[in-house]
Amino acid sequence: MAASALVGALLVGMAWVGTAQFRDATSSHAPTGGVPSGTQYWTSVQGGYHPTGRVRTYYLGAVESEWDYAPAGRNLITGKPFDEVAGVFLGRGRTRIGSTYVKCLYRAFTGPDFSRQVERPAAEAYLGFTGPVIRAEVGDTIKVVFRNTNCRIPVSVHPHGVFYLKASEGAPYADNTSGTDTLDDAVAVGATHTYTWLVPDRAGPGPHEGSSVMWMYHSHTDEVADTYAGLQGFMVITAKGMAREDGSPRDVDHEVFELFAVMDENQSAYLKTNLERLPSAPDGALAEDEEFAESNLMHSVNGFMYGNQPTVTLAKGAAVRWYLMSMGTEVDLHTPHWHGNTAVADGMRVDVVSLLPAEMVTADMVPDNVGTWLFHCHVNDHLTAGMVSLYRVEDRPPVS
Ligand SMILES: [Cu+2]
Question: What are the distances in angstroms from CA 18 to CA 35, 87, 247, 337?
């Protein structure tokens, strides 16, 4: 990417985040009330929370969208039309939904009135249906102002890793909470809820990790139906003192985020909606039909199949950090594999990593091998069903 494009990307990317300084974060209380904030508290739980005083505010919307798993309409790995196997999932017909589904997705907005969605820069198009990346540095406070802009289902934002109280957990269950502590559980269409998450030391990189750690966020009102509807995203926490202004780690030139998942559209909260869009109204038996069910298992990377993911482009010699995760169920054991280059994950040299549902793995790569390379799940069934992308290494100076 040209330097000017990068600057443009940064500007657009930053438009949805506002930062502010608390005057005295150690003694003040967050707006949801009762957030432990004193040094005494954190010492008593042997945690470390050493506030930077910085609050990062994100405007996150849930947006009902049509999502096409294969927008090119071709297999971009073979360069040919879809074959019979691909047709099982992507073929559209009287009783087949095809490649495009209605989903509910997390999208960034520019401000608290949610009048303008942030346009995702071209360099981030590969993020697909996943939400915008949320970032913070250890010691920060994250505020997610969340509005269900037009999804017909109630949804929430549930984070992993960071510190939250009940009003910011985003999950309804019999946890003895009531009143305002339950407003996070399910945000109805048109409603807004602000989630406040602290970033103590234990949300940052562990002893064997580099300068940042990835956590996911996802809807947890109806966890299964919501995540299959598309509501998940990545969050990066950078070690204290290691963050750039935007929260990204200083010692990394390029970060890449990839979700490997068999998106089971049969279990999406939008199955009924998608059925109703079929050319002929389906009879009740269709949802029970095994072949129909199979046709809705979208083996995808960030919501793209058969090489349809926009190609991630890296510079030879750049410090690249890959953040990989999976979601789903027992079929979601994935083994992302890079052709052409190797990485270090968990202190080991690898070109394959393994993921189980909701597992998150960070891998550092300094690509030395120029070319366009496969990046695919090594589980045979998943590979043939479309869980394959490309990445490209170019001989140019790293952008940082
Ligand atoms: Cu797989």
Answer: 21, 45, 12, 37
Average pLDDT, rounded, for the chain:
91
pLDDT recorded at residue 285: 79
Domain-by-domain residue ranges, the chain? 3-394
Tokens describing residue 286: 């269709």
Token pair, residue 393, equals 């290494």
Distance (Å, rounded) from C-alpha 137 to C-alpha 54?
9
- 3-class DSSP assignment, residue 197: strand
Tell me if residue 46 falls in helix, strand or coil. coil
- 10 Å CB burial of residue 344 (0-12, 13-18, 19+) is middle
3-394 folds as: Immunoglobulin-like (2.60.40)
d(CA 304, CA 259): 10
Output the CA 298–ligand 1 centroid distance in Å.
Answer: 11
For tokens 């043939």, what's the residue? 384
User: How far away, in angstroms, is 331 Cα from ligand 1 center?
Assistant: 8
Helix (H, G, I), strand (E, B) or coil at 127: helix
Q: Which residue has the tokens 């891998």?
A: 363
Q: Which residues, in sequence order, are bridge partners of residue 109?
A: 117
SS3 call for 124: helix
Q: Where are the alpha helices (DSSP H) in the chain?
A: 3-14, 39-44, 84-90, 223-229, 271-276, 290-295, 380-384
Report the pLDDT value the prediction gives residue 16, as an integer from 0 to 100: 74
Q: How far is CA 265 from the centre of its chain?
A: 18
Structure tokens at 320: 């690249």
Q: Which residue is it, tokens 């089971």?
A: 264
Report CA(325)–ligand 1 centroid distance (Å). 11
Tell me: the pLDDT tens digits for 321-342? 999 999 999 999 999 999 999 9
* pLDDT tens profile 170-206: 999 999 999 998 999 999 999 999 999 999 999 999 9
Ligand 1 centroid, distance to 385 Cα (angstroms):
9
